[in-house]
Amino acid sequence: MPGESALSGLNVVLNDGQWLVGARMNQSLWHIDRHDLHLCAHCGQTHVHHQHNAEYRMVKFASEPLSNEARREVGENVVFAADPDLGLSLSAVPDRVGWLAGLAETLSH
């Protein structure tokens, strides 16, 4: 409509094989941080090829909740990064310009 400001939405997730970075703006985004293998509620399998004597850690992002598993919503206008050890950091940004600047800063690490 003329005179109305339509807010577009965007989720961005990028990975270079070591770092995972991304941002949320006007879309839903959820994350799960696992420290143990998880059995699928549908088939009872883990769906992960993992050595049993090694530590397991996983961070997963999805735009919609895919299971009844405990998950956290990524806040609106947030940039995030998961480092090579899967330490997760989230930072709120005040506006669209800040959102893009925050994403660019996150990517520069």
Could you characterize the architecture of this molecule?
- There is one protein chain.
- With 109 residues, this protein is mostly beta strands.
- Helix content is 11%, strand content 31%.
- The protein has one domain (10-107).
- It contains 1 helix and 7 strands.
- The strands form 2 sheets. The chain has a 4-stranded antiparallel beta sheet, with helices on one face. It has a 3-stranded antiparallel beta sheet with strand order 4-3-5, with no helix packed on it.
- The radius of gyration is 16 Å and the shape is globular.
Summarize the structure.
With 109 residues, this protein is mainly beta. It is built from 1 helix and 7 strands; from the N terminus they run E-E-E-E-E-E-E-H.
Q: What's the tally of helices?
A: 1
The ordered H/E elements are EEEEEEEH
How would a crystallographer describe the biggest sheet?
4 strands, antiparallel
The count of β-strands is 7
What is the SS-derived class? mainly beta
Unreliable spans are none
Number of domains: 1
Q: What is the average of the pLDDT values?
A: 80
From the spread of the alpha carbons, the general shape counts as globular
Radius of gyration: 16 Å
Q: Per DSSP, what share of the residues sits in E-state strands of 2 or more residues?
A: 25-35%
Main sheet: which strands, in order across? 1-2-6-7
For the terminal residues, how far apart are their CA atoms?
Answer: 41 Å
- Helix-residue proportion: 10-25%
